[in-house]
Amino acid sequence: MLRFSLKNYTPQFEHFLGKCPRLKNGDMVYRPPKAAKGRRIVSLSPSTTLVLKKHLESQKALRLLSGHSLKEDDLIFSTIDGNPIHPNLVTLAWTRLAKRTGLEEIRLHDATHTHASLMLKQGIHPNIVRERLGHSSIQIALDTYSHVAPGLQAAAAKGFDSILIKSEDSPQRLELLQT
Question: For the stretch 10-23, what's the b/e string if a residue is b when 16 or more beta carbons lie within 10 angstroms of its beta carbon?
Fold first, then answer.
């Protein structure tokens, strides 16, 4: 769950909190994350920050019109009175958005895997990916996203060459390194 922090709102960071399942009687109950690392601060991209700032302003306006106010640590995505949105409605909204953008069979959870895979392909250190995902062990991230590794191996090899062979090096030096 993402929450606004109105007192210490720093656009680059937000808190990820535990899950909020619906019980049989209809009440929503917050569950803490499974691991201590599940509650963390994650840096957001500038474009995400802009979208969330606009959303915050929109939420403030809607709440004001409805007679509610935005409170410290309210959920970023909530009903007009600040209560959690039912998970099925979030899933439905995601499915509709995905279809509108041409992504037919993609679950919301798949976006997490895409995020991790793209970061690893960019050469982001696996431990940073682990932190962002809230995995307790780097091994989980490495095991889950090992399919990205072949491209990382080729990039590492090219990077190593760029350290050894500067652009001003002669072709003779390159020949010597290849023998």
Answer: eeeebebbeebeee
